[in-house]
Design a protein that fits this description.
alpha/beta; binds N-carbamoyl-L-aspartate; binds zinc ion; globular
């Protein structure tokens, strides 16, 4: 009989949006309940571009999340990114990575980078101090089909960065395509990727199932089934290049259910349960701990967490609404739940 419990070293979330103010207070505890540490994305309005802003934001997160949770901060790269400020925040351990948003690619990316060469001085410095570059990998060229934006980004931008900065540590965030999985697999040890639950579970049909489904819409948008299968194979392969990053991205119900709905899926409340189901389906539960609790920490050069989290095989019904937000899997029944 299959085991009824699954115990792993306490996991981390290597990509999450916790927002600020009222929304932060609503969502922080969900991430803190599931994860020991999380890399918090800097796409606030205004974006987190200075060491002081990141330190203040970290305090607000600690207050909202409570004891026992460690937010790991990031710097939002703009065309004006200052290598000295980036290095200072890294040396003072305020932030551990910097995030590249191509201008206009996703939520709150208006201040992002308009041309990759503009941040070459910052990348040069990051390479020399061993600071990770996190990348939202999509081109914004309106001529490029929305479903091709990730694959084209590899050719137009990412390959060049990896070539020009051969020792720069890069995390290709929330990968959605076979091209991205292959690119990461074929690159050096300094290139890794995060994978979200939704990109392991849904393909693009989910966005149009019986009508337009705003809660299945995030960026990068879900792709064809063959891409979901490729991303699943990579995530469950046991390769240390792939690790957990939920990209939980809460938006108010009104902002999602709108004539121009925001991109982002709020998956924090049941993220581990969701991933565990995927690993079980792939007959890879023995690789779950590596993906959830080891590969990311090793890539970032951080210690592994002490303590364990146990999931038990037990049905859990995901509510239709939580804190006024619609969670991923709303109304569905999942097969694993966090014990205790
Ligand atoms: N993933 C999303 O669809 N949205 C994220 C931004 C991002 O990670 O691209 C958000 O901040 O809402
Ligand atoms: Zn993104
Ligand atoms: Zn994100």
């Amino acid at each position: 009989m299959a085991s009824q419990t699954l115990t792993i070293r306490r996991p981390d979330d290597w990509h999450v949006h916790l927002r600020d103010g009222e929304m932060l207070r609503r969502v922080a505890r969900y991430t803190a309940r599931q994860f020991c540490r999380a890399i918090v994305m800097p796409n606030l309005v205004p974006p987190v571009t200075s060491v002081d802003a990141a330190a203040a934001y970290r305090d607000r997160i600690r207050e909202a999340a409570g004891e026992g949770f460690e937010p790991l901060m990031t710097c939002y790269l703009t065309d004006e990114a200052d290598p000295a400020e980036i290095a200072r925040g890294f040396e003072e351990r305020i932030w551990i990575a910097a995030k590249l948003y191509p201008a206009g690619a996703t939520t709150n990316s208006a201040s992002g980078v308009t041309e990759i060469k503009r941040i070459y001085p910052a990348l040069e410095r990051m390479q020399s101090i061993g600071m990770v570059l996190c990348v939202h990998g999509e081109v914004t060229d309106p001529e490029i089909d929305v479903f091709d934006r990730e694959a084209v980004f590899i050719d137009r931008v990412l390959s060049g960065v990896v070539h020009d900065f051969p020792d720069l540590k890069v995390v290709f965030e929330h990968i959605t395509t076979s091209e991205a999985a292959q690119f990461v697999q074929g690159a050096g040890d300094n290139i890794a990727a995060t994978v979200t639950p939704q990109h392991l579970i849904i393909n693009r049909n989910a966005i149009f199932a019986g009508g337009l489904r705003p809660h299945a819409y995030c960026l990068p948008v879900a792709k064809r089934e063959k891409h979901r299968l490729a991303v699943r194979a990579a995530a469950t392969s046991g390769s240390p290049k792939f690790f957990l990053g939920t990209d939980s991205a809460p938006h108010s119900r009104e902002a999602k259910e709108s004539a121009c709905g925001c991109a982002g899926i709020f998956n924090a409340p049941f993220a581990l349960e969701s991933y565990a189901q995927v690993f079980e389906e792939e007959d890879a539960l023995d690789r779950f701990e590596g993906f959830a609790s080891e590969h990311g920490a090793r890539f970032y050069g951080l210690p592994l967490n002490a303590g364990t989290t146990t999931l038990e095989r037990n049905q859990v019904i995901v509510p239709d609404e939580m804190e006024g937000l619609v969670p991923f899997h709303a109304g569905e029944t999942l097969r694993w739940r966090i014990a205790g």
